[in-house]
Amino acid sequence: MSAFIEKLWEMGPVMVGGVPHANEIGMKFVAIDKGRGTLSLPYNTALIGDPRSRVISGGAVTTLLDQACGMAAMAAFDELMPIATLSLRIDYQRAATPGETVIAEAICYKTTRHVAFIRAVAHDGDPDNPVATAQACFMITGPAYGTSKAKETDAKKSGENS
Q1: pLDDT of 11-24, one tens digit each?
Q2: Is 41 exposed, middle or buried (0-12, 13-18, 19+ CB in 10 A)?
Q3: 145: confidence class by pLDDT, cuts 50, 70, 90
Q4: Tens digits of per-residue pLDDT, 99-132?
Q5: What is d(CA 150, CA 74) in angstroms, rounded to the nearest whole number?
Q6: pTM for the complete prediction?
Q7: How far apart are CA 54 and CA 14, in angstroms?
Q8: Which ranges in the chain belong to alpha helices (H)?
């Protein structure tokens, strides 16, 4: 495991818990590796989209998939890059099982200078029986955090906002 991936493992719980909406819905960090990110969303009655069936909202599943795809995109590089969701397509295949945790597993399968391409699956225990699948593109929005180029860019932005 590279030093960068080890750093991401340490940062994982903070990267999820530090995002207000992810924290609010109870999203949990599970794992990260080179080009991969796994998160979970424990069943929560506050997330129910249909009171009769007690199925969680598709919006919660979308949020989980977007966050997992972002983690996979971050883990695809050798340094921490600023990223933003460029596109996210979700194909819902069935309702999540009421009472079960939903797991999102994302894999970055290609990167270019400016874009990371990710596939993901959300399931409630069996990846071969997905709740939803996702295809995403994340844009690299600037130089790696902590580099002299990033500091120069931040300084220019600060001057523009003065």
Answers
A1: 877 778 788 889 89
A2: buried
A3: confident
A4: 999 999 999 999 999 999 999 999 999 999 999 9
A5: 16
A6: 0.86
A7: 30
A8: 3-17, 20-25, 58-75, 148-160
Rg of the Cα atoms in the chain: 17
Kindly state the tokens that stand for 94: 């069935």
Going from N- to C-terminal start, the domains of the chain cover 3-160
Question: Which ranges constitute the DSSP H helices of 18-145?
Answer: 20-25, 58-75
Q: What is the DSSP letter of 94?
A: S
- C-alpha to C-alpha distance for 70 and 51, rounded to whole angstroms: 30
Q: Residue 25: pLDDT above 90? A: yes
pLDDT the model gives residue 157 = 57
Interior angle at CA 85, CA 101 and CA 155, nearest 5: 125
**Position 94: which residue type?**
R
Domain 3-160 CATH class label: alpha beta
Rounded distance between C-alpha atoms, residue 72 and residue 38, angstroms: 8
The residue with tokens 């993901």 is 120
Q: Is 119 exposed, middle or buried (0-12, 13-18, 19+ CB in 10 A)?
A: middle
